Write the structure tokens for this entry.
Amino acid sequence: MYREKRRNPNDENSNSKHQKTSKRPFTFLDYKRILEKVFFNEELVEDINDIWLFVKKFESFTMKKTTTDNSVVANLSYNPLELPEVFDKMHLINLKMYYSDDELASRLPTYDQEEAYEKRPLTKEDISKFRQLVLMYTDFKQKEKFNKLRKLRETQQNLPVYQFKDEIIEAVRHHRVVIIAGDTGCGKSTQIPQYLSNAGFKRIACTQPRRIACISLSKRVAYESLSIHNNDVGYQIRFEKTVNKDTKILFLTEGLLLRQVCGEDLLSQYDVIVLDEIHERHLHGDFLLGVMKCLLHQRSDVKLVLMSATINVELFSKYFSPLAKLIQVPGRLYPIKLEYHPIISEMKVLGKKSERFDPSPFIKIMQMIDKKYPKHERGDVLMFLSGMAEITAVVDAARVYCEKNDTWIILPLHSSMSLGEQDKVFDYAPEGTRKCIVSTNIAETSITIDGIRFVIDSGKVKEMSYDSTSKVQRLKEFWVSKASADQRKGRAGRTGPGVCFRLYSEDEFDAMADYSTPELQKVPLDALLLQMVAMGLPNARLFPFIEPPQPENIENAIESLKQHGALTKEERLTPIGNMLSRLPVDIPLGKMLIMGSLFDQLEPVLSLACVLSVQTPFTNKAYKDSECERARMDLESDHGDPIILLNAFKQWLELKSDGQNTNTRQWCKRRGFEEQRFYEMTKLRRQFKDLLDECGLVKNEEKNMDDMTSAERALRHGELKLLRGMKKTHKEEDSRKRKVLKKDMWEIEDNLDAEDDSVDIRDIDFRMRHNQRQVKQLLKGSTAISYKDLMMLKIILSSGLYPHIAINDEFNSCKTTKEHLFHTEGKPFVSLHPMSYFGNHSDVLQLSESEIIHVPEFKGKNIVSSKHQILIYMSLLETTKAYIMNSLRMPGAQTLLLFSRNICTNRNFSQIICDSWLLLEFPLPEAAENLILKATKLRNTWDNLLKLKLEERSNRRAERQLSIDMVQFMNAEIGYTIKRLLAADQKVMYIGPSGEEITFTGPNPFCSDDWQVYEDDKYGGLRLAPYLTYDCLTGQSLVVYDPWTCPSCNSTIEVTSALEKLQHRQVCDSQTTSGTAEGEACEDVMAKLKPNAKRYDCPDCPGVLYLTPTEMLKHKKSHL
Amino acid sequence: MSVKQEHPLIIKSETKLDIKKSKNNEDSEKTETPDVKAEETKIVKTETEPVVEERPIFVCKNCNLTERYDCFNNRVSFNRNLGTKVDYYLARDPFSPRSKRQFLILGSVCSMCDKDVCVKPECSIFYSKFFCSICARKYISNFPTSIQEKIKTTKRI
Ligand SMILES: [Zn+2]
Ligand SMILES: [Zn+2]
């Protein structure tokens, strides 16, 4: 070859020269660069560094072995196998390279390049030798990989479930429903889908209660079935999927499968449906069981596999009897010693109920372990406590104990901790120490920690329950169920024999309920029932729930859906109900999002919905530490918590977008915020936006970066590269750091400065996901720019949260702020949460002296004012007391008239009862008349525009006008009283139906003409609109109507009721305003607001004012 | 007990109808917003490689190892540098990233008895040709001495 020839003479020279000058023996390692060029591309070896390591080892090995020639001439006189005549170890290698030595040698560079290194050039023999090395390496790698596969198969075969493989396959072939009961660790979740797939089932859907499990199981199963490179195994969670038509095993969330039931043709895309973890009894899991029961009737070809822990298996088996076949897979559990150590506290001895939680029994058990079990015997401790406060108390006490006894590492575990912090519980304790995990029931089934030998069980759990009548959520401590207690115990025997200490007596255990309450019995059912109706299961009352909820809970949920306008009176799905059923969020949030899109306020509403959906970012410290409170001053808003949360989110985003990589971690710490929550908000916001995009409520413009300029793109590219580098470094450092726990870990945790030096991985993640422009966009979307926007936001929030309203107790003005009480419809006498804005500033909600209007002619003990305020709140939470959570203040009468589902009035509108529990009284009936007329106009327009919007025929201009009108309406100044009606009042307030034929003639000022006016069969009076009943109250004095002069047409007419006046004006206005300019109409609106207003030329003010007599007085006063 | 009776929903016709109806609703919505659907199919397309047929299964007649393989050949289509000296059951290496284009040798056919066996030392040996362990032991005297040693010392299954 040309090149070889050219350098051959040089070769020989340098060869001899080299051998003289260098004492170092020849090694391929000196030729890395050249050999890499000659031999390697990505197809040959996976990791080039790895092969050099191999070469190094090989060379040092052969050096020591004082190389003898391997090739021994075999004595093959008779060769039936036709083997090579001469033995060569290379014959043992089954691999070959597709390049000849000549071809490889031709790739060698010319000698000149090597001269500088004082090395002899490589020869063809070297190449040949190195080729052998490479083949030996690849052969070694093949064996290594095959061994890996072999180990994997062995582990699979050692799983308890493997013994049942054939039985399970047979059962699924011959039974329509197969229930497999086996405890965590038996391998059912990973193996059974593979067994079924290998047995020939083509499309297997496996549901999981948690999204994260879908992803991890899909990865694991793909790995085990050697199909990470194709689509045989995939997962699907909302907004994310790795699935196509080749997918044989699909992991998906329960919620998603439910959605597919209504979307596609009865799940006909699956031949086996596997529901996993059904014992957890989540809302969706229970619902799915019912849906599957229905499905079995319609699809005879589908196979159902239910997988559960060994908890209450009979229930499932009975539910699907006689179709179900039960297979029990015994778990792998070592013997566990059980010890009862009931707590005998002094309080109990004295017969008092102990108020404070006492951590000392837990410490005593730790002491006992220290005494009884030698340190060198490994084994960690897992404690089960009911809540965060108890965990903190035990952790603190245990750390005090550790100061004397340095053999423990104490780790709290709680769902509100960040995932990173939670991860610590999986690390190893150093030799001679035990880790002690102080956990809620999260470690009972959701998180499995290896190496636990001792379990200390308090026997308690804090659980949220829901009272659908008073709409109160209760967080209370309960005894766990026997099933839970045994589950907790079982955690001690997963890796070896263990001990379970129960801090209660055997009698107390015997008194426990057998099983825990399913979620279905503890949560609002609104969203679930709505989804059922949307799925075409029209009557929830008849749904075959595995354990049906209380009938009144179903009724209350249906009632609530009607109140929200999601269902008609006949329980049919409304357009807004249909939209709500497609948004997998709570109904109030869903409604807010829809209204946000209607009023072009979607961006801030999205942010609001997010801040209200995640746990509060306020830490306990936030309200205890005055430093924190001071630092937070600029975020406060006297409108209420949602606005403050929005402000906080906005400022946090501001820091993220200032381009200076400000330390937001510190910013949060100083203000008492848990930063994790803000990250969650941004993540959730993206999901909400995708959801609305899916429903056609918003166009998601942020999806791509196409609108970036090339310079921006380049900059972003650089930034991403840098961030990726930082992330990688962090990961490496982290993995090195975290294998063994440090003893003094918690000291660092509290140290602000120490933490600031480390990489903020969450910040890096955030910045990788959002470019500057996107953050700015987020920021823009989290700001209420003007007062108008703010009021509109509050209105949108109210439209979602109504009827969650509360009013002041009449005696609040005589009490201190902390003692203020409020009333809601379902629950009187509730307090403001101490960790809320109004809980600390409840005076904002009280009327000031100047806001009280004294009306001499108006009798009654209630205060007249135009500034009454009511609270709109997210939820009621009952712990020791019932508390209002996340509240917002709103103008009273206006909000009620705009959102009440049921408004009853007397003949002249001076009395109005809202939703049967709040009475408004107006000293000036004409003012009330106009206020309610205006309210109904707004409501009707709102309804119409929403209808158009849902039909995708939005009228942008009208929407804008409506929001202007609405804000104006909220500011109307009309004096009134507000009073809560007691049950006794309610009985005598209504006239009741007359039973006579009602004739209604003339126009209806409150509703379109297609509304059929009728006598209300409960209250009497006239149902003038779906939500309005006129003239049905008893408490009206006889009003004598003077002849009335219409302000529009100036004619004087005899009227007998306020309705007649309104009817006249309706006709009159339609005649006069038709054809007038918009400006005049606007002025008309102003005049309408204050019917008794007269023109007033104030000598001190420019322009003309229209004021009522009271206002005139007040106005004059203001100039004094 | 008939489940139909116990079942309070009259699903037979009505529910089916209702579910169908809601399905139709969904369809009509989809046609109104065609970009939604277009996007869905787009996602699927970008995720999918050209459709792979059901991957065939290789079973070792000696130890029952059962694995799906991609081809029986002395090379794989995705790696042009490295191959095997005889035909093997080859699979894409499940333990390395796809971009590395590595393959994994699962097993082959014994050159003497035509049986499928895997590359486990207990099941087969390669010396210039592929032999199942049974044949290797049968013809042990015909191998070079160092190989004989090897055949003798490997465990049996
Ligand atoms: Zn084998
Ligand atoms: Zn053979």
About this structure: Residues 71 and 121 of chain B are 22 Å apart (CA to CA). Residues 1-52 of chain B have pLDDT under 50 and may be disordered. Chain B touches chain A through 78 residues (CB under 8 Å). The first strand of chain B starts at residue 57 and ends at 59.
